[in-house]
Amino acid sequence: MRPNIISQTDGTMMFIIGCSIILLLLVTVAMIFFCFKYSRKKHPVAENIHGNTTLEVTWTVLPTILVMIMFFYGYMGYKNIRDIPGDAYVIKVSGQMWKWTFDYPETKKKSDTLFVPVGKNIKMEIYANDVLHSFYIPSMRVKEDAVPGKTNRLWFNAEHEGRYDIACAEYCGMNHSYMYAVLMVVSQEKFDKWVKEVPAADSTKKTTDSLNTGGVKDSLKTSTTPVDTTKKTADTNKVKQTPDAIRKDTLKK
Ligand SMILES: [Cu+2]
After folding, report:
1. Identical topology for domains 5-82 and 89-252
2. How many whole angstroms separate alpha carbon 14 and alpha carbon 37?
3. Which tens digit of pLDDT belongs to each residue from 90-140?
4. Residues with C-beta atoms within 5 A of ion ligand 1
5. Which CATH code for domain 89-252?
6. CATH class of the structural domain 5-82
7. Are 165 and 136 in contact (CB under 8 A)?
8. What is the distance in A from the centroid of ligand 1 to the CA of 173?
């Protein structure tokens, strides 16, 4: 079984941070030690030091091995992220100023919230309807640009049920910083129920309207439709701070 992107990315990160901390300590300790050992009081006259082959070979070979190990971990992680499992469940995501729309090709369902079953490989096909965006799920350690006219892909496997943030990580205009969506990781049973919940034709129409016109006004209209159940599960504070609410405020001004 292939490693999960989350643990693999975190492992590589911890390895690099660990090496950095050890090196920082070594350099700092050596620096302080030399400050005392070669202080002016003890060594009033400076001495020139000539080559030391053993030392030079050591400080060339050891760091080279170290960075090659870092590269190896990084490359294995990159390969895993790029090599999308063939059995992954496909969900399409479209970025537009300033919201994400998720499209489930198997059931023709559309949603403002990304629902996925726990422990299943999910493949995202990423589109942009207007400008560059970047589809980013920090807790899944995946990020990929959404480019108009191009389909990008990523995959992830959520190991635990819960509610996670999805952000836009590419500056895409005035309300970029409010371009958040919600990832809900639920059990397979709940997911199967949810994905069939809203009549397909109904939900498709609402989102397609907003996709075709693309304007902020239309996306506001869409936001009031009960496309998903997230709003019920989100706490009150979060609901007050939804991008749509902020967008409305901005428009009034
Ligand atoms: Cu964006």
Report:
1. no
2. 34
3. 999 999 999 999 999 988 889 999 999 999 999 999 999 999 999 999 999
4. 133, 168, 172, 179
5. 2.60.40.420
6. mainly alpha
7. no
8. 7
